[in-house]
Design goal:
Elements (H helix, E strand, L loop, with lengths): L1 E3 L4 E3 L4 E4 L20 E6 L14 H10 L4 E3 L5 E3 L2 E6 L4 E6 L13 H12 L17 H4 L15 E5 L2 E5 L7 H4 L16 H6 L7 E3 L8 E6 L13 E6 L3 H10 L4 E2 L10 H4 L4 E13 L11 H9 L3 H8 L4 E3 L24 H10 L7 E7 L5 H15 L2 E7 L2 H9 L6 E6 L11 H4 L16 H12 L3 H18 L2 E13 L3 E7 L2 E2 L5 E2 L1
Parallel strand pairs: 1-2, 4-13, 17-18, 17-19
Antiparallel strand pairs: 3-21, 5-6, 7-8, 8-10, 9-10, 11-12, 12-13, 14-20, 15-19, 15-20, 16-20, 21-22, 21-23
InterPro entries: Peptide/Ni-bd, SBP_5, SBP_5_dom
Protein name: ABC transporter substrate-binding protein
Pfam family, one: SBP_bac_5
């Protein structure tokens, strides 16, 4: 998943359980014992890139809100394991045809029953290229996807995925193009949420005040650049397990400001401690913090397809070798990041230590020689864009200085005020420079670090901002999908990963850790896949 802060683009990131024993405190207007303000808590997010529609939300800021408003078929638990959620069972005999039984009793916030058709209609919409949904490529395994995605400027002849069938109101049958053993894990991502009938009458209006089926419902409309407020949906089947009565998602364009508000008791949960506070936040917050490995990978990317200056893999490898990852991790992030040596996070099965090899090894002399051999950059200049609302200024400027010093070129770090702004420019194929990006898992599988970012399908309907295409890579993805066992799938995905380490469409720079903090209003809180698990939150 995309995000400045986390599979999604990250603006930060999170996959962890937090716990503390302190009680009391919280918002400036806290009242009473139950978490103050009647059990309402507040947390920091950035401005979502798009309106609040599950299939068009592929970054962590909007994703956090979608997760509160919608419930899918499966989910991640506190250990980041895939377990059933609205699904009573997810069964298959061949990993190609899946039968999903729904739990009864779930309704949308307008009272409409959640049925198998609610999922089918939502997935058909998300998979249709005419609707230009950010998560479109995630539906590519379902039979009929190609009919809904014939390509740019080509007419879509149907509006339905042939692989979807409602056996009855509570039974959904899904037929894939080929076996895909990770399908239940993929279903845990919010893009596969159901939608009520009212959505299709006015998708844009719906996105301003979505009607979900999750533990919380909207309280008013999306107040852009300010906040998104939700309150507990009392008719949610598991409502009695949720102690929090409401959440104010406060929108910040500056993480330092959000951190000051956390210290002042004006917000209760800060999921991405800014660089400036990494040296002191544990003491500042009396250890109401988390510091643990995360699923996100931080990159410097290049628009290969849209700027010929970056087309040579040797040049991209030279840029990578000129970056001192160890110094960035230890000096800029105070040990809150670790040097990246793969395109896959270390917490994902299939990660290999040192997989990136020489390309991710700091060697300024070799880097300069290779850079010159590759012909260098036009005018010996490079610009690297980054979102200023995600606390990235220090490390991107450090990378710029390293490249400038080690390669003898002029490098400029260009701030975009919001993560939304740089994503929009990249979506429009408008931005021509290098760019800071990070990826947090949508679901815990190697495939999710490969297809959504680097596949051919993800160029027009996804997150392949590089415009990267390698047919051998595409072939290995398909072979991994069809592999008869998990181990064989991992081998194929690792081979695809090896192609990335050779081509270097992006430069892996660091692996994230989750560095979060919370107020004394919160006694314990668990987070998985960057999303708060609301039934685990205990208030002081």
């Amino acid at each position: 998943m995309r995000g400045a802060k986390s599979a999604k683009w990250v603006a930060g990131a999170a996959v962890v359980a937090l716990a503390a024993t302190a009680c009391g405190g919280g918002d400036g207007d806290s009242k009473g014992k139950e978490g103050g303000s009647g059990g309402v808590i507040s947390m920091e997010i950035g401005e979502p890139q798009n309106l609040l529609v599950p299939s068009n939300t592929y970054e962590t800021e909007g994703g956090q809100v979608i997760h509160a408003l919608f419930t899918g078929l499966t989910k991640l638990n506190e250990k980041s394991e895939v377990v059933n959620d609205l699904a009573q069972s997810v069964e298959t005999k061949d990993s190609k045809v899946w039968t999903i039984k729904l739990k009864p009793g779930y309704t949308f916030h307008n009272g409409e029953a959640v049925t198998a058709k609610s999922f089918i209609d939502a997935w058909n919409y998300g998979a249709n290229q005419d609707n230009a949904q950010q998560t479109n490529p995630l539906f590519s395994h379902i039979q009929g996807y190609k009919d809904l995605n014939p390509g740019p400027k080509k007419k879509v002849a149907t509006k339905e995925l042939s692989g979807l069938k409602a056996v009855d109101d509570n039974t959904l049958q899904v037929t894939l193009d080929a076996p895909f053993s990770a399908f239940p894990a993929q279903l845990s991502f919010s893009a596969f949420s159901p939608l009520p009938k009212v959505f299709f009458n006015d998708p844009k209006g719906f996105g301003e005040a979505p009607i979900g089926n999750g533990p919380f419902k909207m309280s008013g409309k999306f107040q852009h650049d300010e906040k998104i407020s939700v309150v507990k949906y009392d008719k949610y089947p598991e409502a009695s397990k949720i102690e929090v009565k409401g959440v104010n998602f406060k929108i910040y364009s500056n993480l330092d400001t959000a951190y000051k508000d956390l210290l002042a008791g004006n917000i209760d949960f800060h999921i991405a401690i800014p660089d400036s506070a990494l040296a002191t936040y544990k003491k500042d917050l009396d250890n109401r913090v988390i510091d643990t490995p995360d699923s996100s990978v931080g990159f410097i990317g290049f628009p290969l397809k849209y700027n010929d200056a970056f087309k040579k893999p040797e040049l991209r490898k030279a840029l990578s070798m000129a970056i001192d990852r160890k110094t960035i991790s230890e000096k800029i992030f105070q040990g809150a990041r670790t040097p990246a040596d793969d395109f896959i996070s270390p917490i994902i099965e299939g990660y290999r230590k040192g997989a990136c090899g020489e390309a991710c090894t700091f060697d300024p002399a070799k880097a300069k020689a290779l850079f010159q051999q590759a012909g260098g950059l036009p005018n010996n200049t490079l610009e690297i864009g980054y979102n200023a609302d995600g606390g990235h200024k220090a490390w991107v400027e450090a990378v710029a200085n390293m490249l400038q010093q080690n390669l003898g070129i002029k490098v400029t770090a260009k701030p975009f005020e919001k993560f939304q702004a740089i994503l929009n420019d990249l979506d429009a194929k408008k931005y021509q420079g290098g760019f800071r990006m990070a990826w947090n898992m949508d679901y815990p599988n190697m495939e999710n670090y490969l297809r959504p970012i680097f596949s051919k399908d993800a160029i027009e309907n996804g997150s392949n901002y590089a415009g990267y295409v390698n047919e051998d890579f595409e072939k290995l993805l398909v072979e991994g999908d069809k592999a008869p066992s998990k181990d064989e799938a991992i081998k194929k995905y690792q081979a695809a990963d090896d192609i990335l380490t050779k081509d270097m469409p992006y430069i892996p720079v660091y692996f994230y850790k989750l560095n979060a903090g919370f107020s004394s209003k919160i006694k314990s809180i668990s987070v998985a896949g960057h999303n708060v698990l609301w039934d685990t939150v205990k208030l002081g």
